[in-house]
Amino acid sequence: MKKHLLLLSFSLLTSLGLQAQTPTKRPLKPTDVYRLKTVSDAQISPEGNWVSYTLSAIDSAKNKRNADIYMVSWDGKETIQLTNSPDGESQARWSPDGKYLSFISSRNGLTSSQIWLMDRRGGEGKQLTDLKKGDLNDYAWSPDGKKIALVIKTSADTSKSKSPKPIVIDRFQFKRDVEGYITKSSTHLYLYDIATKKIDTLTKGNFDETSPVWSPDGTQIAFLSNHTADPDKNSNTDIFVIDAKTNATAKQITTWTGRDYSPVWSPDGKQIAYMRTTASEDYIMYDQSILCTVSKDGGEPKLLSKSLDRPVSSPKWSKDGSAILALVSDDRIRYIAHFSPIDGKLTKLLDGERSFGSLERHPSGSFLTSMSNPQTPAELYIFENNNLRKLTKHHDEFLAPLALASVEGFTSKSKDGTAVSNLLYRPANASKTEKLPTIFFIHGGPVAQDEYSFDLSRQMLAAAGYNVVAVNYRGSNGRGLAYCKVISGDWGNKEVLDILGATDYVVNNGIADPEKLGIGGWSYGGILTDYTIATDTRFKVASSGAGVAMISSMYGADQYILQYEHELGAPWKNFDKYIALSYPFLKVEKIKTPTQFMVGESDFNVPAIGSEQMYQAFKSVGIPTELIIYPGQFHGITNPSFQIDRFERYLKWFGKYLKK
After folding, report:
1. Class of residue 573 by CB neighbours under 10 A (exposed 0-12, middle 13-18, buried 19+)
2. Considering the domain boundaries, does residue 138 fall inside one?
3. N or C: which end of the chain has fewer CB within 10 A?
4. Is 181 among the domain residues?
5. What is the mean pLDDT of residues 526-547?
């Protein structure tokens, strides 16, 4: 008996000791932004033993995000950081012999980006190119490793004067976010000889060429271009093929009036797989991309996924050319599928409540992919023998101390009977029987979808004790073309019905406290925030990021001139449509919701004027409001300290009205 009691006491002490050693998980907080890294652009070495990728991390002391190149062995046992420069590196590509990694950087004080070459065994990178004019946008090695196809953009004004000059514009599309005002320029393909360092012009003329892809035998290059009479007035791109030598003539392979893109040569070099838009209009917003194949000599294409009615992306041929693997976006998930190049027959390979990213084929026939789920940011995985094996583990340290929200799907019904797919984020350890303050955080796009993937913004809000709802309103993809396209020229109508239907669901099912509802979003999510609070007064607080409410004032002010003309028509002909869509601003006196407005100072996508107008209107009629403008930021807020500031302001603003 004494022996038994001693053993029991020892067991209890051991258990208590283990509990004491187990750290308590904590909620996510805004400063965790500094700890989150991004894994991207994975490339498999020619012999298949290594995978290179870019790891982006934040230097909190310098308030700067920096990208370095890493490589990991195919078996996952060894990870090596190859670059450690404060200037950052991108677009790492293996030389065809596998001995070198090239990358693009403006390190060492260069005023423009150049290609650098690094021995994969170690040592410093050496500058390979010395381009004097133009900006290097992209590049691709020839299969024999002797040449590199370059994509270089040159401006009409090549002077190096430090004094600012007037910006002279004569284009139909004249502004674009990040790029700014668009002047005369040309983007062409060039051939760079590794041995002689000589650059030869491959394409020239009045059209832009991008996205070069070498044929397997290295004799030809496929690329994209728009050869319509005025490329500024449509969204067309076609696939062209040109012999990889100077003075060659390009041949147009596709003729769809919409957009053909993402060309991938078949292993035997006889076919090209590619993506094509469903829509053939001059402006393409609402779309479900189709997987196609066409002969390298042109002709009638095969539309392999036309009947699927779901967006397909990232096509890659199997090793023997008997199949094409691709990603399919479908109702909150993104899965890996196998398509027959003969009849388009689809076979799901990997699905579930998660989201897969890029695809790269290994020499053995296996595939490299990325994957994210609601609890884990994207990492690299290997898909072989019908199994998924994790290759990188860069987020383990980030996740270790955190108690994250759980995520579950639900379907709501809108007032007109439409079924809408949604996601609910519940705070960690929250009781499912407790009604919580609830924030609807609306995605942008509108052609996008909220998936079972890691979402930092919604996790951050849930960590503060809120239920958070993501609504895949009409206009989202993943539910078919009709579901996506139905909002064309009718913004702020059916989407609002869908948001309010989801609101009714969480209230009626005891999930949300009806007296503590908030709403927010960025870009189209900010626009829908404005539309929703102008339609329904039940929301106690809102945050509208990079939004606009007075559509009638935006023609020519943002980058969506084609959308205005093709969905609404010219304002001087159809001003009633513009006025109808401006109802949040024109009916501002009916709004009761205190609203925070945020925007990047240099945003050309949805310019700051959209937020400024609503802020001014709120001030004029006496609705509680505030306006935050982030200096030097475009449509996306990239400055790390500003990203943290935005989260802190979300929490303070929502907390002021939902946690009284």
Report:
1. exposed
2. no
3. N
4. no
5. 97
